[in-house]
Design a protein that fits this description.
CATH topology of the largest domain: Serine Threonine Protein Phosphatase 5, Tetratricopeptide repeat
GO biological process, one term: cellular response to tumor necrosis factor
Mean pLDDT: 85
Structural class: mainly alpha
CATH superfamily of the largest domain: Ankyrin repeat-containing domain
CATH architecture of the largest domain: Alpha Horseshoe
Helix content: 40-55%
CATH class of the largest domain: Mainly Alpha
Pfam families: Ank, Ank_2
Radius of gyration: 34 Å
GO molecular function: NF-kappaB binding
Number of domains: 3
Keywords: ANK repeat, Repeat
Number of helices: 22
Strand content: under 5%
Order of helices and strands: HHHHHHHHHHHHHHHHHHHHHH
Low-confidence stretches: 12-29, 39-57, 396-403
Organism: Alosa alosa (allis shad)
Length: 403
Amino acid sequence: MTCLAPEVLWRLMELHDSVSLCLMESRVRQKTLARHGQEQGLGQGEPQCWPLLPTPQCSSPLDEHSLLHASWNGCLEQVRTLLICGVKADSRDTQGWTPLHHVSFRGHLPLVKLLLQSGQVEVNCRDFFNCTPLHRSCWAGHNEIAHYLLQRGASPVMRSSSGQTPLHLAAANGHSATARLLLQQGALMEAQDFHRWTPLHWAAIGGWGEVSDLLLDNGADVEGGKGGGASPLQLAVWAGSEESVKLLLHRGASANTAGPSGRTALHLCACTGDTKILKQLLAGGALVDVTDGSLASPLHLAARSGSREVVQLLILSGTPLEKRDRLLMTPLHCAALGDNEDTARLLLHYGAEVDATERLGRTPLHLAAERGHCKVLTVLLERGVTSPMSCVRFLLLPQATCV
């Protein structure tokens, strides 16, 4: 047998089922006609009355699958026929989606109206992730469907399993018209999901400036509200969204707000190495000598990550070269740990102390030798530092040979 595509097999199966149903219906009608004629005493030449077959009251899994498939593809007449034949309008797929979830997500407004007008499906029905059809329509940005669902009683404040409201999903995908509609219908701007993120957080991390402006114009807290999570500005920096960073700073966001680990937006930028965002933060008043929970400054993190441009900007902005973290390490120690040759050379050029010791008395040369970081080791030796005996012993080991 020739191997057919899944779509062709599906169509053949539907054709087979429809033909089988027609044959079965014909046989039932013939038997019913004969019995009805005998009861009424009708002759062969008299008019015959064809009784209607009863509508089935139960549906098979195949019928429910056909309804879900037709809903996804927007087949209005097929959905109408299946509903008339008794297929349950609240059938569910493997994710718990009902036909109403499917048509709301896909943007089939006539089918949304048909399903709700049938009275067989609840407008706030939830799938296995506790998302309602309104969640799905807002995620996809179908404004007309969201408006109709709200008119029919959909709740704009119901939360998914992750604590997100429909406004979270609209903001996360940049659907400003849908977000405006939800705000007009009483959506909560300061609602926080399980990450303690508000809709503004999601708009900022996605770089959706229009949605961010809309939320801020309607009173959203530019710092992300209470709860101790990361601020929208910090998420925008982490995501590398230059436009969101610019917008939030312009709207009054503080560049020095600390997150859960004590890190500010400048700390995060030092990790990502984005010089454009770094310049925006510095222009917005970011402090360069601020420390996080481990007492590390942005320069510590930039030296460890290896961004030469960020290290230079921080040094020129006045960051202390000998600032110590909780382990009493300097930025030069961090450069040695990361085997970052360029940042180590730059720190030494601006006067970093080459023999500074950390909590256990180790210098940057110790750390580079112990880890086999030959690039930084070469830079430190070129600086003229006296090699400690521990470093000499390490260099004599075969496995530590620098290539």
